[in-house]
Design a protein that fits this description.
This protein is α+β, with helices and mostly antiparallel strands. It has a domain at 88-251. Helix content is 53%, strand content 13%. A hairpin with a 3-residue loop joins strand 2 (145-148) and strand 3 (152-156). The chain is elongated, with a radius of gyration of 50 Å.
Length: 264
């Protein structure tokens, strides 16, 4: 009996001895792994979205679509097309008038003095009166006015000029085309062609605001005017004005010198 008991207890003790080191090793491994593993925050818990929470989230978070739409409207403002007044008036450019008047005076002012110096058959006083009369005519021609309204386009002059120089008027509905013509100096002028085709009407090209006048023509007649340009650029008149001033200075010096020497 004791022998059987000893035989039975020996396997039990053997099993216990075998299991004890493994348990200790496994426990030590667990401790070692815990030391090496960094602390990791636990995963956040999922919360269930309730209708109340959804309303709060909607009120606290602005709508990104609405903001982007508002920003785009602010960044790119709407531009309205240019509106032309129902009635407008254009006059000859002051640069053109001053240049042409100065050129006329610089070319003609020495003539009476030359007539007296050379004992010309035409008296100097008669020549002076004629030159003044020509100056008045030039001033009248340069007083041209262009009027546009909802009915048509008209070219006119002041009352003191209309007696000897008449203008013209043409309804927008009568205009069928705008034809270019080449001048003797190589420039381009444009003429209105009417339905009656009885005559051609010259488009005024030396007025202030010529680009606005062309926009009127395009808006009222539906004629493409993208290629219509002024007959002469401002810098051309500036060069001519500079030459005119030089000529006037030379004329003044010549006249003063002649008077001082008593030759006139």
């Amino acid at each position: 009996m004791n022998l059987l008991g000893s035989h039975v207890s020996l396997p039990v003790v053997y099993v216990v001895l075998l299991c004890q080191p493994r348990f200790e090793v496994s426990e030590n491994r667990i401790r070692y792994d815990r030391q090496l593993t960094p602390n990791v925050n636990p995963a956040p818990s999922l919360s269930i979205m309730t209708p109340t929470n959804a309303e709060q989230l909607t009120e606290s978070t602005p709508d990104s679509t609405t903001e982007s739409t508002t920003e785009s409207k602010t960044a790119v403002p709407e531009t309205s097309p240019e509106t032309l007044p129902d009635r407008d008036q254009f006059q000859i450019s002051p640069l053109v008038r001053i240049t042409l008047l100065g050129l006329y005076i610089s070319l003609t002012i020495p003539l009476p003095f030359l007539a007296q110096l050379t004992s010309a058959p035409v008296p100097a006083w008669a020549l002076a009166i004629g030159l003044v009369f020509g100056l008045v005519i030039l001033i009248g021609v340069l007083s041209e006015r262009v009027t546009v309204d909802t009915e048509g386009i008209a070219v006119g002059y002041p009352a003191w000029v209309s007696g000897w120089r008449s203008g013209w008027s043409l309804a927008w509905s009568e205009i069928t085309a705008l034809k270019p013509r080449t001048t003797g100096q190589g420039g381009l002028v444009y003429y209105f062609v009417s339905k009656a085709r009885d005559r051609a009407y010259l488009l005024p090209m030396r007025v202030v605001g010529f680009a606005r006048l062309v926009r009127y023509v395009e808006a009222k007649t539906a004629i493409d005017t993208r290629d219509v340009k002024p007959l002469a650029q401002p810098w051309m008149y500036l060069i001519l004005l500079g030459c005119t001033l030089v000529l006037l200075a030379f004329d003044s010096w010549t006249i003063v010198t002649a008077l001082s020497l008593g030759t006139i």
